[in-house]
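Per reviewer request, we include the raw input and output of the structure prediction for the construct analysed in the revised manuscript.
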Amino acid sequence: ELGEHVDHIAVSATKSMTGHLLGGAGGIETVATVLALHNRLAPPTVNVDDLDDEVDADIVRGEPRKLPEGRIAALNNSFGFGGHNVVLAFRTI
């Protein structure tokens, strides 16, 4: 749960554009995350036509979204088969 910050944390899923890349997924998602921070653009989550009303998260849909100026951070979650999971944190400097 994102709690009180739910309204200003942009959430996007690059897998919606690439499909499942198996062993390459973590690397490609990491590059996408770093480029999103560098370019200050959150990629959209595509094919989300009917978002459940219970979802409070700020899902980036339709078009890339400009990210704010100043220092920002991003989390890259990769959950693989067989419990191979990792979360990487990045921030601008």
